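Entry 12.
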Amino acid sequence: MPERDDEEEQHLTINDKGRVWFAGYHFGNAGEQYKKARTKNFKIEKTSAEKLLDAFATYFGNEYMEAFATDIGSWVMELTNTEKITYKFYGSLCANFDHKCTDLSDLVHNTVGMNDLYVFDGNNKPDVINRITLEYHRVTKSGPKEMTKSEIWKYTTGDYTEHLVIDRATETLEHILNIGESYKVSHKYEIAGGIKNLLESFDANILFSHIKGNPKEVIDTPDETKDYKITIDYEKNPQCIL
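Predicted 3D structure (C-alpha cells):
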C-alpha cells in the first residue's frame, strides 16, 4: 500500500493558447484517499503548446495501439478538437511513445517544464546526464628568482588550468588548457550522435557517486596546490557539484 504522502494521481490540462493546469493528489488516509496536495497554473508559449498538441494529434490519430499491463498504474487522456469533439485514450504507465524520434512523455516534460509528471511512462525512465564540466587548477611556487639587494625575497608562480566540457545540447566536447596568462590551447570536437552516445553510456545514478577524496597520509605541499571541480547537469535531478 502507498504511503499517505505518496503522490498517486496527477491531472494535467493543456490548451492551444498555452494555458496549463496541474493538480497532484496524495494517497491520503483511509476514508479521505486521493486528497489534492498541490496545484500549479501557468502559461507556456502558444507555439510550444501547438507543437505539443499537433504531435499528440498525429501520433494518436494514426499510430496508437492500446497496451495494458497488470500491477501498474494507468493513464487516461482526452483530446478535444476545434469542433469540440473529444476522443478518449487509455493505457498503462509503461508506454514509450516515439514521435519523430522524440518520446512523447519527454516532450510533455520539456514543454511544460515539469520533470516529475507521470504522463505515459510513470516517469520511471532512468535519468540521463546532459553536461559534464571538469575544471582543474594547479598553482606552483618556485624560486626564488634572481634579485638585486634592494628587492624583497620573491617566488615565481606557475598557474595552470584545464577545462573539459562534454555537452549534449551542442553535441560538442571541448578541452581548454591555460598556462599562465600567456598561453592558451583549445580543442573543440563536434560529433553528431557521438556525444549523446557517450553521455548515455554513463549511468547517471552511479557516475561520480563515490569520491575518495584525499588519503589520510596526504602531505601538505605549501609550494603547490592542486584542485578540481566537477559539475554534472542532469535531465531530471538537480545539478551536482563535486
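Annotation: The mean pLDDT is 87. The first strand starts at residue 7 and ends at 14.
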